[in-house]
Specification:
There is one protein chain. This protein has helices at 10-19, 46-61, 95-106, 170-173, 178-189, 191-195; strands at residues 2-5, 26-29, 65-74, 113-123, 129-140, 156-158. The chain is α/β, with parallel strands linked by helices and 204 residues long. The chain has a single domain (2-195), classed as Maf protein (Alpha-Beta Complex).
Length: 204
């Protein structure tokens, strides 16, 4: 079966291709799709954005499509940056400016609990979707640390560790991250689909 990964984020695509492996499943990217649509993510939730991306691209490409929407939720900021994580400091998206704004908003706040959240949507070629979710709990560091990863990784310390995602080796991060957890749920929930190519959810 061929499965299209609907993301234009090279970092996300690399992580998904590294983490996700199912026998008989061939993963494709938007580079493999002619005139792939540029989906404007205007949903109020990760679920809504993931569904929008998956269904739009699936209908265009006429094939099963997996889309990811994810971000950082900081408790002291009432869940911000949340669904606007990539553009927290405005357009165009800039990791350095987003991190600077997050530190400024937190200030000297002592309660720095946070989580990375990921929703994956799987759409059939008609645009009908189901979703799964994964998250990784942790807290925000006092300063940026590490050169690995992307986005807010240099700020986020997962539970049970003293290093940020930016300091941890990619293989360690990829074995516990929100995206890893979501992909594990996807493999479990949709294994029958991945192993038996169907025309739609209710094909049989």
């Amino acid at each position: 079966m061929k499965l299209l990964i609907a993301t234009s984020n090279a970092h996300k695509l690399k992580e998904i291709l590294t983490i996700f492996s199912v026998d008989g499943l061939q993963l494709l990217s938007l580079r493999d799709v002619q005139d792939a649509p540029d989906v404007f993510e205007d949903g109020n939730t990760f679920d809504a954005n993931a569904r929008l991306k998956a269904s739009t691209v699936a209908k265009h490409a006429e094939m099963w499509t997996l889309a990811d929407d994810s971000g950082l939720e900081v408790d002291a900021l009432r869940g911000a940056p949340g669904v606007i994580s990539a553009r927290y400091a405005g357009e165009p998206s800039d990791d350095a400016r987003n991190n600077t704004k997050l530190f400024a908003e937190l200030g000297a706040t002592k309660v720095r609990s946070a989580r990375f959240r990921c929703v994956l949507a799987l759409s059939d070629p008609r645009g009908i979707c189901e979703t799964v979710e994964g998250h990784c709990e942790g807290h925000i560091a006092e300063a940026e640390r590490g050169e690995n990863g992307f986005g807010y990784d240099p700020l986020f310390i997962p539970v049970g560790y003293t290093e940020t995602f930016g300091e941890l080796e990619p293989a360690v991060k990829n074995g516990m991250s929100h995206r890893f957890c979501a992909l594990q749920h996807a493999r479990e929930k949709w294994s029958a689909i991945f192993q038996n190519e169907r025309e739609s959810w209710n094909a049989y």
